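can u do me a favor
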């Protein structure tokens, strides 16, 4: 899969990055790059992002187990299926970039 990138330059959340559940293995690697100062969390959802009724603001989002309230460049992974990931930035004076790459045969 090609990489997906979202950039957040204020406080708030990025657009969700939908994942492909039909890949094997499912694994996702990601990296977060901080310019200036920021506090951010990578989050995931099990809600159906492809449903016409999907609303990111009412979806249930879970914090990543090790990239939560981070303030420096971080990397991590998802070894289990999730439907989408996003970046949630609590404080920011620069930008936070999330780059996600999903493994597997498509």
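np, heres the sequence
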């Amino acid at each position: 899969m090609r990489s997906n990138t979202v950039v957040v330059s204020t406080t708030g959340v990025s657009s969700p990055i939908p994942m492909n559940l039909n890949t094997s293995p499912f694994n996702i690697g990601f990296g977060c790059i901080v310019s200036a100062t920021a506090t951010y969390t990578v989050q995931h959802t099990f809600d159906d992002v492809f449903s016409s009724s999907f609303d990111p603001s009412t979806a249930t989002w879970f914090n990543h187990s090790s990239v939560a309230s981070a303030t420096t460049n971080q990397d991590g992974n998802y070894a289990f299926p999730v439907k989408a990931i996003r970046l949630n930035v609590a404080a920011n004076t620069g930008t936070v970039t999330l780059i996600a790459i999903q493994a597997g045969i498509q």
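The beta strands are 4-8, 12-13, 17-18, 28-35, 38-45, 61-63, 74-78, 84-92, 95-102. hope that helps!!
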